[in-house]
Amino acid sequence: MPELSIVHAEESQAPIISSVDSTQHLEIETAALKEGLELLRSLEREPTGLPPYMTTNVERCKESINKIFKTTFNLIQARRAGTITTDEHSRTKILLLKDAGQTLKRYLIVYHHERLNRIRKITRNTCGILGQSLKANMSKNEQTFAEKYYRLYIDFENDVTSNNGLKLLTNNSPPKLEYYYYRCKEDYGEYELADGNIIIIKRGLIHHMPKENAETLLRSGIVEQVHM
């Protein structure tokens, strides 16, 4: 019976992790962080287009995140079981590994989020027509996303703009100036707008023009704003 108790005690112990193993893990994750950083640098080098999808770097980052989780879990279990020292040195290793894992996750999230934003913009600008060179730079999941996104975008546009003729694919920028309708209250003659165009101010006429062009006329009482 005593021997059986010893066997059970040994089986319940947390895995023994040496300081050498932990140091090696830290070195490995440092290399993974460099590969994760390269994901973001690839977007910086091509700020407007869509650079090739870096499958190898993405997969290595994902593998490193899994390794970090397992290593951190084993270190915590070993500290609790007393198989490694519970000093500040082992605590620092755990915190460094945890920070490395979180940083890799942020790299992956930012990388994919930025790529999807660019794919949305490109899809709208090309009316859903993606060339072979562009598809070659996209992952399979990104190609599927682009197709589904464009279908949803078109369905939304047709639903919203069926009666007013507005096209979201072409009219996707807000107006730079506020336009209003103004009725002329008296005869004034020619009036030059800010863009150099000339309009005729004649009693009863209604003009549609930017607010900044009508301010002087409004203050003088020559025109009045009306709602059409």
Compact overview of the structure:
Helix content is 61%, strand content 10%. It is mainly alpha-helical and 228 residues long.
Features:
about 230 residues, mainly alpha, Methane Monooxygenase Hydroxylase, Chain G, domain 1, Ribosomal Protein L9, domain 1, 3-stranded antiparallel sheet, two-stranded antiparallel ribbon, 5 strands, about 60% helix, about 10% strand, elongated, disordered N terminus, nucleus
CATH top level of the largest domain? Mainly Alpha
Would you report the number of β strands?
Answer: 5
Q: What is the helix/strand order?
A: HHHHHHEEEEHE
CATH topology (level 3) name of the largest domain: Methane Monooxygenase Hydroxylase, Chain G, domain 1
Nearest-integer average pLDDT:
81
Shape: elongated
Widest sheet, order of strands: 4-1-5
Largest sheet: 3 strands, antiparallel
CATH architecture call of the largest domain: Up-down Bundle
Percent strand: 5-15%
Number of helices: 7
Count of discrete structural domains: 2
- Secondary-structure-based class equals mainly alpha
Family: Belongs to the GINS1/PSF1 family.
Subunit structure: Component of the GINS complex.
Keywords: DNA replication, Nucleus
Subcellular location: Nucleus
Protein model, in words:
This protein is mainly alpha-helical and about 230 residues long. The protein folds into 2 domains: about 35-160, Up-down Bundle (Methane Monooxygenase Hydroxylase, Chain G, domain 1), CATH 1.20.58.1030; about 180-225, Ribosomal Protein L9, domain 1 (3-Layer(aba) Sandwich), CATH 3.40.5. The chain is built from 7 helices and 5 strands; from the N terminus they run H-H-H-H-H-H-E-E-E-E-H-E. It has helices at about 1-10, 20-45, 55-80, 90-125, 130-135, 140-160, 210-220; strands at about 180-185, 190, 200, 205-210, 225. Strand 2 (about 190) and strand 3 (about 200) form a beta hairpin. Residues about 1-20 have low confidence and may be disordered. This is DNA replication complex GINS protein PSF1. Its main location: nucleus. It is found in: Nucleus.
